Each structure stands twice: as structure tokens, then as C-alpha cells.
Amino acid sequence: MSLRGWVLLALLCTLGWWYSPISPRPLHYPAPAHGARVRCPMPPRVTDYAEPLQTPVPAGLQPFRLEPGTLTPLAGFSIEGRVLSRRDYRSGRDADFSPADLGLGWGRMREQAVLSRLRISQEVRFLSFYYPDGRPPIPQAEITRSSANLHIIPADAEVARALKRTRKDQRVRVHGWLVRAEAKNWQWNTSLVRTDTGNGACELVYACAIEPL
User: Fold this and answer.
1) How many angstroms from the chain centroid is the CA of residue 105?
2) Within its chain, how far is the Cα of 31 from the centroid?
């Protein structure tokens, strides 16, 4: 290989490392809109090894006004589970809000005996499961209701750092609010159930805290 080729290869490797999950580059989080005072109050917290806890929005909780747009809280959300996959995103209006997705599993979807028989893909804001031996290790409906793809919107720099440190197979809790994101001529909606699939089935979470366990 020529010197120019080696330099180009080194540059590509450096760029790949810088934009990888192991680089020191901080993850983006959306700052408050000009003049707005934004606070992310904690919702009721899920207990250990329980299913995700979804709660009503308390009276008086106002939309969160951020630089890229407004988040309207639709439900409190607290989830504890095993990280099945993580994917960072850098471009597009959705990335102005959410720099990363976390795929989480709970119930039997945290068990290695089940996960070893699944191939997991996280692409273009979707979490997908494939079966190398041709059949699911547990019923498909259970896989659906025991896993979720979370579009994480960090509430502040501390949450963004915690998201940056989160790794596959780690056990974590995420506390925050399921929201609808709105900007000019654009809207992004959250799912409010754990049993749906396809477009619109992911949870859009304004995360007040991410706790490694």
C-alpha cells in the first residue's frame, strides 16, 4: 500500500474510533430553549426485576421547552432491564433530540439461555430479532412484551454521560417521561404500550436518570 493509502486508512480508523461508543467524545443532549427553565422531575420508580412502570402525568407538569423543539409528557416511565443493544445516531432531526437508542429486555428476555438463541439487530431506530435455528426460543408475543427500543433524550450532561457509559449486557434503570417531540413541521411520537410492533412501537423517553446496576 502507498503512503497515501496508509494515511487515508489511518484517518478512517481515527474517525471510526472517534464516533464509536468507546471514544471520549461526549454524547449530545438538547439544551433548554432560550429563556426556558427546564427541570426533569423523577417519576415513580420501578422495583427490582419488575416490568416497566408507566404512570399518569401529574397535574402541573408542563411541556419541556428545548432548543430543537418541545417535549410534551404523556406518561411517567421507569424501566429496569438488561441492555440487549445500543446504537448511537448523529444525523437527522431525531438525533437533535436523541443521540442514542437502548434496546432493553426484562423477564425472560434478560436470560442468557434465551438471548443465546436470538440474533439482535438495531438499525435506523428499530430493534429487530432473528432466530438462527428458525424458531423463537420463547413465544413471539413474549419477546415483544418483554423488550423495548428506547429513543433516549438525555435531560442533562450527567444523563448523557451515563448513557455514553452504558454497554450491552449491563443491567440498568432508566427513569423519565414518555413524550411527544414537536418542532416546526415535524413530530415524533412515543409508544404508550409494550405490546406493539413496527413503526411507532418504540418508546421516546426524556430521561431524568440512567442508573447502572
Assistant:
1) 12
2) 18
Cell of 198: 413496527
Q: How far apart are CA 141 and CA 154, in angstroms?
A: 30
Helices (H), the chain: 3-18, 93-97, 112-115, 140-145, 157-165
Sequence-separated (6 or more) residues with CB below 8 Å from residue 155:
29, 38, 40, 176, 206, 207, 208
Distances (CA, A) of 202 to 39, 57, 158: 24, 19, 24
Report the distance separating Cα 203 and Cα 82, nearest Å: 16
| pLDDT attached to residue 26 | 73
> Does residue 163 contact residue 210 with C-beta atoms inside 8 Å?
yes
What local confidence, expressed as pLDDT, does residue 91 receive? 86
Distance CA(175)–CA(127), nearest Å, equals 20
- Nearest by Cα to 147 from 202, 186, 96: 202
Nearest-10 Cα torsion for 70, 206, 18, 147: -130
Among the residue ranges 8-22, 147-161, 187-201, the one predicted with the least confidence is 8-22
Q: How would you classify residue 103: left for phi > 0, otherwise alpha for psi between -120 and 50, otherwise beta?
A: beta
Contact residues for 164 (Cβ-Cβ < 8 A; gap 6+):
21, 26, 27
Question: How much is the pTM?
Answer: 0.88
Q: What is the pLDDT of residues 74-97, one digit of tens each?
A: 999 999 999 999 999 998 899 999
